[in-house]
Design goal:
Low-confidence stretches of chain B: 1-6
Shape of chain B: elongated
Main location (chain A): membrane
Oligomer: heterodimer
Distance between the termini of chain B: 38 Å
Largest interface: A-B, 24 and 29 residues
Radius of gyration of chain A: 28 Å
Strand content of chain A: under 5%
InterPro entries (chain A): MetI-like, MetI-like_sf
Low-confidence stretches of chain A: none
CATH superfamily of the largest domain in chain B: P-loop containing nucleotide triphosphate hydrolases
Number of strands of chain A: 2
Number of domains of chain B: 2
CATH class of the largest domain in chain B: Alpha Beta
Keywords (chain A): Cell membrane, Membrane, Transmembrane, Transmembrane helix, Transport
Subcellular location (chain A): Cell membrane
Membrane topology (chain A): Multi-pass membrane protein
Strand order of the largest sheet of chain A: 1-2
Strand order of the largest sheet of chain B: 6-7-8-3-9-10
Radius of gyration of chain B: 25 Å
Helix content of chain A: over 70%
Largest sheet of chain A: 2 strands, antiparallel
Helix content of chain B: 10-25%
Chain lengths: 309, 381
């Protein structure tokens, strides 16, 4: 058995170790960040600073505005328009809850039950985006038109009596009432709720459902204890994506509402474009931003989803 | 079989089958797993072993047949009503709950309020007492595996089902967990039904192994019995390696069958022949590689009488430390595999050497010649 006793043939002489290549990539991440940072600076940071300075100016359109550090504008704006703020939060909140109630079952269906229909339903969810926001909202004007089939049916069924009693509708009208605005908001922001919900439901491992069933959880308990908690990231991002833009929205209140349903977005729009009171408009924008930031922070803290994402 | 009350906790599958459209995943199957045993369903992927397990768990509805546990027909019960728990492949731990709550899940669902003591005891049993407040993703694969076992065992199921529980672990950890699971099973005395494609795992752990192939149980028995007395070439090849020689039955004398293969004669104990051996008929003669001795042709005279022998030439040899594996070409069978313990190595046994292969006739087994001698070779690889 010679092969075992013989020494192995010497290995080929090792090539000299190549010099480590110059670290050329050190600056690459920053170069890649540059376009985004520039974009943010020019289109976000600068306008914000400009806006902030506007909010503390005084003067008039004829004489021009000057920065006078007049912070009282904030207080004046808030005391004059607090009902619109409350209304914005109320409408947007209601629309968000409605979106969640409507969107969750649909997202669940698409994620777990749709099978080969999944893509088709997804396209149907996204399809409204192919039409302009304005046109879609105007279509609701037709749907909710006075004496139209829907309103007629609701009237016959005495639904309007109930909603009228609650203050959501007025008489036999739906258009130009809070209900119409909330319907418009719900409709327009529903896809923003469904998509994140679907994404987080779809990521849930189906075996977790089996495991829960195997561990004596009935289907409803499985949903409460496993599926829903695991879909919380989707619930949180869906509600944020719905609530934040809905709070600042003015198109729905403008087209489907009346002067009694004006939201803070409408006030800002009017101040900027009709009254031309720039300081008040800017101050209102900042108050809205701060309010949303505060509510969102509290919400995320409370829902405690940091662990899940 | 009737459904009248059975005093034991046996798992009984009666004529159970599963079809998906035209595809039959499990052919009608009768199987009884005695209470307290460690039972393994062994087979390649797609052989129906996992489907069988899932039908016991209630996660899959059988197309026909019944499942009964300790005499109670549970075929129509949903999983959450069966006294059975499963350790899933890749564990399926709840990622949003910590280890304690994962283990407590089953108890809480059954409305048990004071779970602390039980959960702590169970975590101690699987040696994870320290990790109770961690989330699953913070644990290693082996630890997650033990959580999965604890989460199932704490419910004191009649049967614990394990679906390839060690598949995701590396080799060393897998060996360790095999012993661990065996220890736990002995300790708690619950029936374990273990699905695996790893023949070594099945043989190390189980009392009884059922080898499945293409939706059928090929053979059922203790690991040693399956290994020594395979009844089909599939079992012979799936459990370890076998050499096969096609031989003709020459004569029968008492307990022995004498066969002709090539120019020589081989002896096979009749008790070890599962095929009908009629004179003139064909039989596949099998022998395991480690049972064979290798002697250089020059020393052929030293081989004791009464041993089966065939001649050949070494085609290849590979040294693997504890043994050397030879591939020998012989007129009756190409690629004859021989494993020789490295005790006294003969330096003449190198590729190209003429050798005599010989073994004790008692180590020969006979199979029906009407089957593919290579069945199960690929699956086992």
């Amino acid at each position: 058995m010679s092969t075992l006793t013989e020494a192995p043939p010497p290995l080929a002489p090792e090539a000299p170790e190549p010099k480590p290549p110059r670290r050329r990539g050190r600056w690459t991440p920053y170069w890649l960040l540059l376009p985004g940072i520039l974009w943010l600076l020019v289109f976000f940071a600068l306008p914000m600073i400009y806006q902030a300075s506007t909010s503390v100016q005084t003067g008039s359109l004829e004489e021009g505005y000057k920065v006078t550090w007049h912070f009282a504008t904030y207080w004046d704006a808030l005391s004059a328009y607090w009902p619109q703020f409350v209304r914005s939060v109320l409408y947007a909140g209601t629309a968000t809850i409605l979106c969640l109630l409507l969107g969750y079952p649909l997202a669940y269906l698409i994620a777990f039950r749709a099978g080969r229909w999944r893509n088709l339903i997804m396209i149907l969810v996204i399809a409204p985006f192919f039409t302009s926001f304005l046109i879609r909202t105007l279509a609701w004007k037709t749907i909710l038109a006075d004496g139209g089939p829907l309103v007629g049916a609701l009237d016959t069924l005495h639904v309007l009596d109930v909603t009228g009693w609650l203050g959501w509708t007025a008489g036999d009208r739906v258009l130009a009432t809070p209900l119409a605005v909330v319907c418009g908001l719900t409709y327009n922001f529903l896809p923003f709720m469904i998509l994140p919900l679907y994404t987080s439901l779809e990521r849930i491992d189906g075996r977790l459902h089996e495991a829960a069933g195997d561990l004596y959880a009935r289907p409803w308990t499985t949903f409460r204890k496993v599926t829903f908690p695991l879909s919380m990231p989707g619930v949180v991002s869906g509600t944020l994506l719905t609530f934040i833009p809905a709070t600042g929205d003015y198109v729905n209140a403008d087209l489907l509402g009346s002067t009694d349903t004006r939201m803070v977005g409408n006030v800002i729009q009017t101040q900027f474009l009709r009254v031309l009171d720039y300081p008040t408009a800017a101050a209102l924008s900042f108050i809205l931003m701060a309010a949303i930031l505060l509510m969102v922070t509290l919400y995320i803290r409370r829902s405690g989803t940091e662990d899940l994402v | 079989m009737t459904n009248k009350t059975d005093p034991t906790g046996d798992v009984r599958l009666t004529g159970i089958s599963k079809t998906y459209g035209a595809f039959t995943a499990v052919h009608p199957l009768d199987l009884t797993v005695p209470q307290g045993s460690f039972f393994a369903l062994l087979g390649a992927s797609g052989c129906g072993k996992t489907t069988t397990l899932r039908m016991i768990a209630g996660l899959e509805e059988p197309s026909a047949g019944t499942v009964s546990l300790g005499g109670q027909d549970v075929t129509a019960l949903p999983p959450y009503k069966r006294p059975v728990n499963t350790v899933f492949q890749s564990y399926a731990l709840f990622p949003h709950l910590d280890i304690f709550e994962n283990v407590a899940f089953g108890l809480r669902r059954r409305g048990i309020k004071s779970v602390k003591k039980q959960v702590e005891e169970m975590l101690d049993l699987v040696q994870l007492g320290e990790q109770a407040r961690k989330k699953p993703h913070q644990l290693s694969g082996g630890q997650q595996q033990r959580v999965a076992v604890a989460r199932a065992l704490i419910n004191h199921p009649k049967v614990l089902l394990l679906d390839e529980p060690l598949g995701a672990l590396d080799l060393k950890l897998r060996r360790q967990m095999q012993l661990e699971l065996k220890r736990i099973q002995t300790e708690v005395g619950i029936t374990f039904i273990h699905v695996t494609h790893d023949q070594e795992e099945a043989m190390t752990m189980a009392d009884t192994v059922a080898v499945m192939n293409a939706g059928r149980v090929e053979q059922l028995g203790s690991p040693a019995d399956l290994y020594e007395n395979p009844r089909t070439t599939f079992v012979a090849n799936f459990l370890g390696t076998s050499n096969f020689i096609e031989a003709e039955v020459d004569s029968k004398s008492g307990e022995e069958i004498v066969l002709k293969a090539g120019g020589g004669k081989l002896v096979l104990p009749e008790a070890r022949c599962s095929a009908p051996a009629t004179t003139g008929g064909k039989v596949l003669v099998g022998v395991r590689p480690e049972k064979i001795s290798l002697t250089h042709a020059d020393d052929a005279g030293e081989i004791p009488d009464g041993r089966n022998r065939i001649t050949g030439r070494i085609a290849d040899s590979s040294f693997i430390g504890v043994s050397t594996q030879y591939v020998v070409d012989s007129p009756v069978c190409t690629d004859f595999e021989v494993y020789a313990q490295n005790i006294d190595r003969d330096p003449r046994l190198v590729p190209g050497a003429e050798v005599v292969l010989h073994w004790n006739p008692a180590h020969t087994f006979g199979l029906d010649a009407d089957q593919d001698a290579d069945a199960g070779v690929e699956e086992a690889a």
